[in-house]
Amino acid sequence: MKRFENIPLRRIIAAWFLMLVFTGPGFTDTPAAADSFPERIVLNLTQTPHLSQAVTWRSEEKGKIPAAQIVPVSHLLEAESHAVTVKADTCQIEIDESLDVFHQSVVFESLVPGTEYAYRVGNDPHWSEWSRFKTASGRNDPFRFVFFGDIQEQVAALGSQLFRLAVMAVPDAAFWLFAGDMMDNGPDDREWAGFFEAVSWMPKTFPMLPVPGNHEYPDPRIIPRDERRITPLWRPHFTLPDNGPPGLEETVYWLSYQGVCFIILNGNEPMDAQAEWLETVLSRNTADWTIVAIHQTVYPISTRRHDTTIQEILVPIFDRYAVDLVLQGHDHGYARTKALKNHQPVTGNEKGTVYIISNSGPKFYPVSDRYDHLMARTGSKEMLFHTIDVDETTLRFTAFDLMQQPVDEVVIHKNIP
Ligand SMILES: [Fe+2]
Ligand SMILES: [Fe+2]
User: Fold this and answer.
1) Residues in domain Calcineurin-like phosphoesterase (predicted)?
2) pLDDT in tens, 105-124
3) CA neighbor of 163 nearest in space, from 152, 174, 151
4) How far is the CA of 256 from the centre of ligand 1 (A)?
């Protein structure tokens, strides 16, 4: 009975509806258990997004043979006979004393670059609907992606609005990059439920690149800062490139997408090992563009931030390897620096790094003037999303507000004339 009490009302309604549909004349199978349906379906990019694609989902029953099926969209109408079935990896998580859940994942391999596929997940007969994704082209072709800062509060109520605007603004986005603090309390499964309610079907089609924020860790008022570990719900929900430093797998990672090297750092963890790893990745990087994402800010705009450790460790590396763009969250305000090198705006044709701090939720902090001499624009009390258009010679970054109005824009040129 306790088990039943944990089934959300919408599932009970869904089960009741299925009973009505499937108990007509001639239907002899036992109706499906309502709590076996796949939910929280998320695409993630792999290190080679032109050849493979990861998908992760959750169910409240393991099912007989959890799997995912994939078919080129050109064969969608004959999917039942053309689909390839891939058996899932499963991990069991205890949510509370009365509820265990099963996170399942599959990496589709040997895909064709630049090809649209349909896929579904689950197990017979509890399959999801078919969703779509497109593999990267494997060449340095132009593409667009969406970037969000902290959502964190009122995620279902207001974050959902921003997500819908992003879909309308960039219906062909290659992926969505989140700078962390996607929710307020990452160890609480109810907050993940709120996040997935807010993003709805979107991560089934727009792969997520998540950056771990401090709110994906336990509250430091409950667990001392140096004893905190990322929520045990993080890794089960995602299937991310496993190419970070030992101990930081799937919270620090890199991948390459159509001429851009994306590097995700974890500012909640000590930076020394990450700096060494970052040097190695950057020294081997042959991509046209390099974009780093980290939740914590390099040049903070919040009046409450005074620690310069990240700045001291990372800026010399960003300078040495001419990182183009650094995407951050955490300070609950907006900031775009001028192109910087050695903590100063560059002059003439010198190459610099642009640092963006974004906020995509309704939580706002006062903005300090500490680094005003480095800033091209700052803003407060704005819920923003960002589109980033990349081609071989330019990177165009645009900030949109809740009224869908562009409120800031910068174009970074690869080859300075
Ligand atoms: Fe934060
Ligand atoms: Fe935050």
Assistant:
1) 143-334
2) 999 999 999 999 999 999 88
3) 151
4) 26
